[in-house]
């Protein structure tokens, strides 16, 4: 298993401490965020780059540009600013999430947004990681639709998919696209009472034996189909963020996943 770490896995840690924890876990690939915690709003890209280089960390993504598929208002300016930041700090990709408030966004608008974002990413040598969200209110739930839009936008060399095991399950998606997948987010849901339709980010914990999202089956399938990229921990649940020893909790989940595989 090639593990990566999203800062949401231990958001109370400073960036430097988060990098140090990741290295202790044998992980050198990390994702920084513009929320929870807002690294982009609290550190300069030069500071982030220096901290990463000091620990031998590769910044695989900044998470996330939202809502990327509604190319209006301040989004173009925010997209360019985030891309500038990514280039300056040494990040490889931007995670791009669709509108998620129950408003429909047409396929044509999705394609137009991908076309508009493409030169911004290309000019800075960045990959766009398109992440369909499986929530019932999401305007882009299926990876198959994202791929169709990427092709329509001529973005095959610019964009990859984010396969999120949580959103894959929520969208009842059965197809896997390893050749399109640039990164995988992993998290589990263990609450036995919440229905799939009612699952939210707050239910997302570390993967263990009580997981309801079939993370192990998804990982096995991706590997069997040829995916060789990283699996990045992205738990949003408060109980994960409040643990006194996040490194130990993450190690336990890593050991469980590896043992199952």
TrEMBL record:
Annotated ranges, domain Xylose isomerase-like TIM barrel: 20-258
Family matches, as Gene3D superfamilies: Divalent-metal-dependent TIM barrel enzymes
GO molecular function, one term: isomerase activity
This protein's record includes keyword Isomerase: yes
Superkingdom as given in the UniProt entry: Bacteria
Keywords: Isomerase
The protein's name: Xylose isomerase-like TIM barrel
Organism, scientific name: Aquimixticola soesokkakensis
Record lineage: Bacteria, Pseudomonadati, Pseudomonadota, Alphaproteobacteria, Rhodobacterales
């Amino acid at each position: 298993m090639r593990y990566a770490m999203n800062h949401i896995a231990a958001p109370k840690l400073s960036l430097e401490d988060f990098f140090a924890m990741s290295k202790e876990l044998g992980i050198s690939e990390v994702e920084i965020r513009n929320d929870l915690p807002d690294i982009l709003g609290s550190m300069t890209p030069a500071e982030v780059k220096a901290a990463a280089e000091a620990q031998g960390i590769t910044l695989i993504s900044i998470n996330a540009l939202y809502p990327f598929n509604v190319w209006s208002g301040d989004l173009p300016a925010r997209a360019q600013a985030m891309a500038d930041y990514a280039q300056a700090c040494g990040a490889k990709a931007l995670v791009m999430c669709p509108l998620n408030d129950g408003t429909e966004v047409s396929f044509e608008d999705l394609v137009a947004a991908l076309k508009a974002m493409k030169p911004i990413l290309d000019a800075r040598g960045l990959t766009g990681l398109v992440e369909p969200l499986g929530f019932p209110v999401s305007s882009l739930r299926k990876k198959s639709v994202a791929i169709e839009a990427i092709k329509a936008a001529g973005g095959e060399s610019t964009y990859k998919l984010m396969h999120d095991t949580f959103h894959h399950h929520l969208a009842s998606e059965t197809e896997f696209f390893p050749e399109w997948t640039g990164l995988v987010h992993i998290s589990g849901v263990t609450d036995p009472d919440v229905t799939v339709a009612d699952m939210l980010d707050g239910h997302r914990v570390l993967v263990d034996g009580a997981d309801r999202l079939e993370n192990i089956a998804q990982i096995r399938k991706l590997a069997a189909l040829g995916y060789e990229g990283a699996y990045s921990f992205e738990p949003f649940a408060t109980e994960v963020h409040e643990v006194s020893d996040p490194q130990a909790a993450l190690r336990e989940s890593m050991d469980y996943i590896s043992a199952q595989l």
